[in-house]
Amino acid sequence: MFVSDCLSVNENGHLTISGCDTVDLAQQYGTALYVMSEDKIRDTCRRYKSSFDQHYAGNGAPIYASKAFSCKEICRIVTSEGLELEVVSGGELYTALAAGVDPKIIHFQGNNKSLEEIAYAIDSGVGDIVVDNFSELRRIEALSAQKGVTTKISMRIKPGIDAHTHQFIRTGQIDSKFGFALETGEAFEAVKEAVAAEHVELTGLHCHIGSQIFDISPFVLAAEVMLGFYNKIYVELGKKLTHLNLGGGFGIKYKNADASVPYENYMSRVSGAVHAACEKYGLQIPKIYIEPGRSIVGEAGITLYTVGDIKEIPSVRNYVAVDGGMYENPRYALYQSDYTCLVANRAAEPRKYRATIAGKCCESGDLIQEGVKIQKPEIGDILAVLSTGAYNYSMASNYNRNPRPACVMVSGGTSRVIIKGETYADLIRNDL
Ligand SMILES: Cc1ncc(COP(=O)(O)O)c(C=O)c1O
């Protein structure tokens, strides 16, 4: 019935998540409120990990892309399940280290890391810095020389694959700000420079072809292209790398109609391509990584709101105003992302009322969703937006000086706060 198997409806007709009544959660913690299911997150991590162990005999690991949802508790949860961690900023690195994550399992991405961020990563002993461009490569080399260390790096490659996804979240093809292009020869030049550099050790290659992808074929193609390049580096430069990171991007269900593919199917088809390519080139199978973010936390999260106003404009639309908006979920305003919405305290009733869910920010475009069918709401009802676990809290701002909501983790019918809601005092803490 719902987009995620951690959701259900109880005997009171209320939406539940991992056994917790969402109406009770809204009452206990207030709204707007992010709610995440630990059971769902752990289950997904285990499915990824066990299919890795099955297809690569444990030689490799899933890496959680923490940009999807970064806080100390999620770092603890995913790493306790055997996943490694990707960070893309000094802030995400700081969060991971503060959570006690072993720096050796951290992969530092990003297309314009500052000198300070690079120094922070080197000083922290991060296991892998994924280099995006020539300037960065030279910066890392110079900084490592200055510090008298050898820094382990890998390289972000654009394999030139169009995964037919939304143009704003497509990062694999040539017109992309991320990485070195394969087809122009840029990637090979970068590898040559890295191999010749004295204070960096090139250990692997990385690609990420996009996000919210449902089709397995582009991932298979990316694996083949990347292994071809991996082999070329060995054949032409005699340089044996040790790992290949095939990125994230696996699609999830925002609407029931979304055809998300079980990860096990991705894993078996992509690992099939990896094994076949290695056999073709006579290569030992490298350590394989994948880097999912959205698919680990997306369906595990929901956001709860209180309906504050209903504005029915005849022959135009019905605005249902909630106590959140683009400051805590900017994804509809940014790229018209789909979501499933429902009235949590009337979850058993049919969804027949067409509504535009509006936030409280001073922007006409501050909408969470347009023209969705929900149960007929009343003021004071609790509205739930589903599949908000990824790129919601992590993309939140303080626009209009709204404090970011709290985040509650639920498991087996119990709940706990993992991120406190911001206060007004938090909003002015850096004001002078
Ligand atoms: C380099 C890299 N790795 C991993 C991810 C995670 O992608 P997703 O959340 O779609 O799995 C992204 C997302 O943009 C990315 O840019």
Detailed description of the structure:
The chain is an alpha/beta fold and 432 residues long. It has two domains: 7-37 and 299-427, Lyase, Ornithine Decarboxylase, Chain A, domain 1; 109-292, Alpha-Beta Barrel (TIM Barrel). 31% of the residues lie in helices and 25% in strands. The chain contains twelve helices and 21 strands. It has helices at 22-29, 38-56, 72-80, 90-98, 115-124, 134-147, 186-196, 217-237, 263-281, 294-297, 331-335, 424-427, and strands at 7-9, 15-17, 20-21, 33-37, 60-65, 84-87, 106-108, 128-131, 151-158, 180-181, 200-206, 243-245, 287-290, 301-313, 317-322, 341-343, 353-358, 367-374, 382-386, 406-411, 414-419. Strands 4, 14, 15, 16, 17, 18, 19, 20 and 21 form a nine-stranded mixed β-sheet that branches. Strands 5-6-7-8-9-11-12-13 form an eight-stranded parallel barrel, surrounded by seven helices. Helix 5 (115-124) links the parallel strand 7 and strand 8. Helix 8 (217-237) runs parallel beside helix 9. It starts with 6 loop residues before the first strand and ends in a 5-residue tail after the last helix. It binds pyridoxal-5'-phosphate (PLP).
